[in-house]
Amino acid sequence: MLSKVGTVLMAGAIALGIVGCAPTAQNTAQSLAQEQRAAEGFVADLQSKGQLIEDPGLNRYVRGVVARISDQRPPGSVPLQAYIIKDASVNAFTPGGGYVFFHAGLIAAMENEAQFATVTAHEIAHIDRGHIQAGRATRQGVQMGAAAAAIGGALLGINPSATEALVGLGANYAVNSFTRTQETDADNTGIRYLAASGYNAVEGARSFEVLRRLYGDQRGAAAAFFSSHPASSERQASLTAQARQLGATRGRIGNQSYDRATRKLRNDILKFYDSKGMSNEAAQVRRALR
After folding, report:
1. Residues contacting residue 238 through CB under 8 Å, at least 6 positions apart
2. CA–CA dist 150, 167 (Å, integer)
3. pTM for the model
4. β-pairing, 81-85 with 99-103?
5. pLDDT score, position 174
6. N or C: which end of the chain has fewer CB within 10 A?
């Protein structure tokens, strides 16, 4: 397992990002049930190995942000469940079926609730727009090792070799190999959710600034929740323009609430980054803690 999270995730994105598929598909009761069964097994495996963060206050806060966005989704949308993985990767992903997973490093890197909510809305949009279902066939043949790489190589307090145990969902699910069209669709859907939820979506779009600070403005950026082709600067510009059109320039940012809920986790992540010599990541967390 590679020591640098960005390198690991980049490899997963390169391995899978070139696969093409239809942009959307209709979620069905059968497809959602299949995704839910796989996700439930994944959660049980993570729990049995102590690889989920169980902090009640932090989980309550994260699930509150998820619920705030979920209230703006179409009637009849699949219920959402959110979990935090003990992993220092700046990453998030959805296997579909209403499940969203956030890596601890993602929470540490974001500077406020609006930025975190942007990531959340993006992942929820992938679920609601049927992107997981649309890409199911194209992901059938991907090797399990690619899924392990996408989960990350910087597990907190866990032997890195244990990363291999995190592939319970299979590469079909753990790696978001979405196309450019799907990423753009999730961006556009997510920004509408964000605006309707009362967030300052211009500030939310600055989550792409965080990614540029960490990984540069390269296409196929390292963080899997913004994987595929568009450069971070392009996506920030597009979302900022849409936010202004939607009038979502003065909404909730949530600096203080985010700091209260996440400070302990961010301090723990910062110590981990410092111990591993991950200077870019450490600098971003220090910036977020100011």
Report:
1. 184, 187
2. 9
3. 0.81
4. parallel
5. 40
6. C
